[in-house]
Amino acid sequence: MAEVAAKSAGEMSRALRRTAALRIDTADRVLIAVALALFALRLVIASNTGLVDDEAYYRIWSLAPALSYFDHPPMVAWIIAAGRAIAGDTVIGVRLLAPIALMLGAVLLWRTASLLYGTRIARRAVWLMLAMPLLAVGGIIVTPDVPSVLFSGMVVWALAELDRSQNANWWLAVGLCSGLGLLSKYTNLFLGATILIWLFAVPGNSRWLRTPQPWIGAVIAVALASPVVIWNAEHGWASFAKQFGRVTHSGSAGPAYVFEMAGTFLGLASPLIAILAFAGLAQITRGAFASRKSADVLLTASVLPMLLYFIVHALHDRAQGNWLAPLYPPLAICAAVGLEVILPERWRQAVFAIAIALGFFVTAVIYAHALSPIQAVAVHKDPTEQMRGWPALADAIDEKRRETGAAWVATSSYATTGQLAFALKDRSEVVQLDQRLRYIFLPPLPQVLLAKPALYVELDRRVDLPLLGAKFRTVVAVGSLIRDNGGDGATYRFFLLSDPWRSPI
């Protein structure tokens, strides 16, 4: 098995060297220059904007890397820990791997598209991918979607290399990338459907099942994903119940959420790119059913299973816009194909230029708004407001803590916990009083500390007075402050907690 794995690694290395050795023409030089400039821009923006709530929460995970976590598999914690080891416990340290992952994803998309449809489609697909606002944001903010998108793309790339080379050792790469994807996000389970459809829908592909490599690849994937299963087994299957429980969650039945999902995709992919993507997907899907051509089947299978699931899900509950993130790179290839199939040749270059210009414009507005709020583009529940005002609020909280004699800071939401844990690091312990399974990986705090008074800090609408009364005999309001979030402000209320009934956590 070691010899086979070594051969597979050699094949991967040779494939990447072949890609790098291809003649680079002027159009490719321009694309490379733009991609590198965008990479540098993302590093600058990542360094000069605050963390969003989820990032701050995942940073806490990285303080004690574990087999898995309540909300997601562990990869996001591991990549944040790696970034912090390189660049320190700073905003750029937390986010460092996000722009790198997007850059690597663009290289792999080019290789995948060139294997499936040729270099012209590949070049256009990368341009379109770089212009998609959702992925542009994902190149700055580190969430489980970052490794999920990367490893989803790597699975499709490895299958494309397998199809081109007919070298069975590529199955080991498929297994490796699949396992890493399962360590990233449960959504990557859909890649299993992609693999199976490609195996059984393309004539002759089922012969691979008579070779050992696909089965070894499957063992690699399962072995890599085993930490998630072990963690769940040790914690009452809590994470599986939380995430897979959404499958049967019953909300308002009807098409409203489907239309919302479609509208969100139009915005996050950029409208013209989204239209081209679905035009290309329709053409490729017809080709997959009509001729069962390997490239068409692979691309169709990388999109339709997840897309159809979320359409069905949206018939009874909201599908968050980022859930479809792994579909964006293959849909960029579909959009490049769509240019070829729905437009006369004389219009293609103009429409392509407009599509990427519109995408880059939307991205530029998002970036500019993140750096400095633009009131004209302010939206309800603006996610960029989470990035602002935390250092000043943390200073005021620490002053209030010392003024009231509190020894630690208490909260009752993961968002406030994450943000204050980062903003108050080295000054005060920050502890969420409830939902302890979210923090089971952290070492316990000394009971002598927990027995001392605490300053409870929480966003006004999240204040949980019944929780405080259940934890402490004495609960005294001690004021409030407004966090400057670039908009109307966010009000946080303070309570001094003392004399706990028992250990408060």
**Beta strand %:** 5-15%
How are the strands ordered across the major sheet? Answer: 2-1-3-5-4
The coarse overall form would be globular
Question: What's the order of the H and E elements?
Answer: HHHHHHHHHHHHHHHHHHHEHEHEHEE
How much helix, percentage-wise, in residues? 55-70%
Primary descriptors:
single chain, 505 residues, alpha/beta, 2 domains, five-stranded mixed β-sheet, 22 helices, 5 strands, globular
What does this molecule look like?
The chain has helices at residues 2-21, 26-47, 53-62, 75-87, 91-95, 97-117, 119-130, 133-138, 145-165, 170-182, 190-201, 212-234, 238-244, 256-269, 271-291, 294-313, 328-342, 345-371, 390-404, 414-423, 447-450, 465-471, and strands spanning 408-411, 430-432, 454-459, 472-483, 490-500. With 505 residues, it is α/β, with parallel strands linked by helices. It folds into 2 domains: 2-371, no CATH class; 388-500. The protein has a 5-stranded mixed beta sheet. Helix 20 (414-423) links the parallel strand 1 (408-411) and strand 2 (430-432). It is globular. The chain starts with a helix and ends in a 5-residue tail after the last strand. The mean pLDDT is 92.
Blueprint (SSEs and pairs):
Blueprint: H1 2-21, H2 26-47, H3 53-62, H4 75-87, H5 91-95, H6 97-117, H7 119-130, H8 133-138, H9 145-165, H10 170-182, H11 190-201, H12 212-234, H13 238-244, H14 256-269, H15 271-291, H16 294-313, H17 328-342, H18 345-371, H19 390-404, E1 408-411, H20 414-423, E2 430-432, H21 447-450, E3 454-459, H22 465-471, E4 472-483, E5 490-500
Helix pairs in contact: 1-10, 2-6, 2-7, 3-4, 3-20, 6-7, 6-9, 6-17, 7-17, 7-18, 9-10, 9-16, 10-12, 11-16, 14-15, 15-16, 15-17
